[in-house]
């Protein structure tokens, strides 16, 4: 029996052109049809404020956003769902309109046991090359980490379903052939699939955590040289319990008319992200979305929605030569470039990543993507590890731009369009700050790069952003390289930006495993990796603040950890913030030196432990 839970809505739909979309392939229903089919779906208001964890995460459910409202009377949600989704009356399911508050905080997070975790922070405001004088030893409060289960069997079965039924995945069948059922039967999925880089945002309209993860696939059974990189989307309730069969109803724009519509996204599922691929050419190609990062932006519908930043291999036409009346030779260039993806928005076809039209895909619905292009510059062969943030002071009334830390050493800030794209194929980006204007465009970005999105705050009257970069230190004493998170604070003074505070390597007391063999650390040809992926939530309750951070270990896990009063700690540090000082490279250089020292010490410790075991 389909159950319906909701409360009296307080607001009516403000835009008369709203539609509902409930099927994929997409079907559309005008507002008049909505009124006819949803009149009076409201239930007893005594149900009260619901949290999504009040419902079983194992049962099928549909979650309507908190602000969704329509007139009363007539049919109910059950009829709507059956009429437009074709749900059999014997199917079990719960239809929910979320009525809880906007907070992701739970009693478990607030009442958790937190312990002090020591870190070293370099204060650029002290403006000296002496790292000892820049260094401030302090501590942060961390709870014990949780690890998100992979559930590779369920994930692989979902992929089989989408390869068979979803038009956006049909051209990927050649990468898998008939191997997936065999891998499930032989219990060898863990040799072929590697799920990591989980990054999430809290959807306050639905009361859930929306997470995407990168999933590598290699038919040969190795993490090295993957055949394909896919993006897997999951939904968790506020207690971080995965919802096994959930549909989120959200506003989007019709890919043909651009009208505002509502659609139901089904999760867990792989996102239909368009990218160039050819299963006949797999060696030395890295197809699909890599290094995904999520953040929230406010769109022109007045709604905060997830925005994904990633890099991907694609092709662009370099030259055309007419060789006959009806023939032309085309030469392609191949690049790894930065892209934006709107998981809750859609486009038809994928000419913007293939650069040629294809009748087989031109009418297929994909997630909306756009390439990020630096103005007046040629494409570099590889672009990756841009660190995203938004400037809330420019939200008027929605976000029209996204910013990136393009370079940490010799700080460079890039500003890219979120609207008004050039011919709908590119988002034009321009540098709004360059520490060293004479630096050549193809200069390597250096070991400090990437990391989480940066979260905006006001620090004692200064506009600031806080997040975690990651230092990639090569040949430093443990394997081929080491990755660790680094707390970072960017502050804006007038038109200038600076890295005011940057920490050395942070471990969060999360155990590290070997990259190819979990039991063997610091192997010669392997990286040693703890990588910060995203800040899922950061909220204040009374005098305390609570951050939820996601990380990955050895490119094969998704970890979640809660941090208490990090904002309070940063505010204490920022009392020394000086608008006239710190516009130099000292903090970055000291951080990299300290991180290299950490790597050497860690490597020596692992060697001693390995010798004792022999």
Quick structural overview:
The chain is 15% helix and 40% strand. It is an alpha+beta fold and 614 residues long.
Features of this protein?
single chain; 614 residues; alpha+beta; 12-stranded mixed sheet; 7-stranded mixed β-barrel; 11 helices; globular
Structure commentary:
- The protein is an alpha+beta fold and 614 residues long.
- 15% of the residues lie in helices and 40% in strands.
- It is built from 11 helices and 30 strands.
- The protein has a domain at 103-144 and 400-614.
Structural class: alpha+beta
| Alpha carbon gap, first and last residue | 61 Å
The tally of strands reads 30
Unreliable residue runs? 6-48
Number of helical segments with 4 or more residues:
11
Considering DSSP H and I runs of 4 or more, what fraction of the residues is helical?
Answer: 10-25%
Walk me through the topology.
Elements (H helix, E strand, L loop, with lengths): L1 E4 L14 E2 L6 E2 L1 H8 L22 E4 L12 H9 L7 E5 L9 H4 L4 E9 L7 H4 E8 L3 E2 L4 H14 L7 H4 L2 H7 L3 H4 E11 L4 E10 L10 E9 L9 E8 L6 E8 L1 E2 L16 E12 L5 E21 L2 E22 L2 H4 L10 E10 L12 E3 L11 E7 L4 E6 L8 E9 L13 E2 L5 E5 L2 E13 L6 E13 L2 E8 L23 E15 L2 E10 L5 E6 L1 H8 L12 H28 L1
Parallel strand pairs: 1-5, 4-5, 4-12, 11-15, 18-22, 26-28
Antiparallel strand pairs: 2-3, 6-7, 6-27, 7-30, 8-30, 9-10, 10-11, 11-14, 12-13, 15-16, 16-17, 17-18, 19-20, 20-21, 21-22, 23-25, 24-25, 25-26, 26-27, 28-29, 29-30
């Amino acid at each position: 029996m389909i159950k319906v839970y909701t409360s009296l809505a307080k607001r009516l739909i403000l835009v008369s052109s709203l539609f509902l979309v409930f099927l994929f392939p997409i079907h559309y229903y005008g507002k008049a049809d909505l009124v006819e089919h949803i009149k009076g779906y409201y239930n007893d208001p005594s149900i009260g404020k619901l949290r999504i964890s009040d419902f079983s995460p194992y049962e099928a459910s549909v979650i309507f956003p908190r602000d969704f409202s329509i007139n009363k009377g007539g049919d109910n949600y059950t009829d709507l769902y059956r009429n437009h989704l074709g749900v059999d009356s014997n199917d079990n399911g719960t239809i929910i309109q979320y009525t809880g508050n906007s907070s992701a905080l739970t009693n478990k997070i607030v009442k958790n046991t937190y312990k002090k975790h020591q870190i070293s922070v370099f204060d650029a405001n002290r403006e000296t090359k002496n790292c000892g004088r820049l260094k401030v030893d302090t501590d942060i409060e961390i709870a014990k980490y949780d690890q998100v289960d992979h559930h590779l069997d369920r994930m692989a079965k979902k992929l089989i379903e989408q390869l068979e039924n979803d038009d956006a995945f049909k051209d990927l069948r050649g990468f898998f052939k008939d191997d997936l059922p065999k891998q499930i039967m032989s219990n060898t999925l863990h040799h072929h699939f590697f799920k990591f880089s989980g990054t999430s945002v809290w959807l306050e309209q639905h009361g859930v955590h929306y997470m995407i993860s990168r999933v590598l696939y290699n038919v040969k059974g190795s993490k090295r040289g993957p055949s394909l990189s896919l993006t897997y989307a999951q939904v968790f309730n506020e207690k971080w319990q995965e919802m096994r069969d959930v549909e989120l109803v959200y506003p989007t724009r019709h890919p043909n008319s651009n009208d505002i519509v509502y659609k139901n996204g089904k999760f867990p599922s792989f996102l239909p992200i368009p990218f160039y691929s050819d299963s006949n050419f797999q060696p030395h190609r890295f197809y699909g979305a890599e290094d995904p990062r999520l953040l929230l932006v406010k769109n022109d519908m007045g709604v905060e929605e997830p925005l994904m930043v990633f890099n991907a291999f694609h092709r662009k036409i370099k030259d055309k030569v007419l060789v006959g009346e009806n023939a032309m030779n085309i030469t392609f260039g191949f690049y790894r470039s930065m892209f934006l993806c709107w998981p809750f928005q859609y486009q038809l076809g994928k000419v913007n990543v293939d650069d040629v039209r294809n009748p087989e895909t031109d009418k297929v619905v994909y997630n909306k993507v756009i390439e990020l292009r630096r103005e007046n510059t040629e494409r570099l062969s590889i672009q990756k590890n841009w660190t995203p943030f938004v400037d809330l002071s420019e939200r008027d009334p929605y976000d029209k731009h996204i910013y990136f830390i393009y370079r940490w050493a010799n700080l460079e800030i890039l500003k890219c369009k979120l609207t008004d794209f050039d011919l709908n194929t590119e988002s034009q980006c321009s540098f709004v700050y360059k520490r060293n204007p004479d630096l050549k465009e193809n200069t390597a970005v250096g070991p400090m790069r990437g990391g989480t999105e940066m979260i905006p705050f006001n620090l004692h009257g200064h506009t600031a952003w806080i997040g975690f970069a990651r230092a990639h230190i090569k040949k430093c004493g443990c394997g081929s390289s080491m990755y660790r998170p680094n707390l970072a604070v960017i502050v804006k003074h007038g038109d200038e930006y600076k890295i005011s505070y940057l920490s050395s390597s942070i471990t969060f007391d999360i155990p590290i495993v070997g990259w190819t063999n979990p039991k063997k650390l610091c192997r010669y040809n392997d990286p040693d990796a703890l990588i910060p992926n995203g800040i899922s939530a950061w909220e204040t309750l009374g005098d305390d603040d609570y951050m939820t951070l996601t990380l990955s270990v050895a490119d094969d896990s998704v970890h979640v950890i809660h941090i208490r009063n990090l904002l309070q700690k940063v505010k204490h540090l920022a009392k020394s913030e000086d608008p006239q000082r710190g516009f130099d490279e000292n903090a970055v250089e000291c951080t990299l030196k300290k991180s290299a020292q950490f790597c050497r010490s860690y490597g020596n410790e692992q060697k001693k432990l390995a010798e004792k075991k022999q």
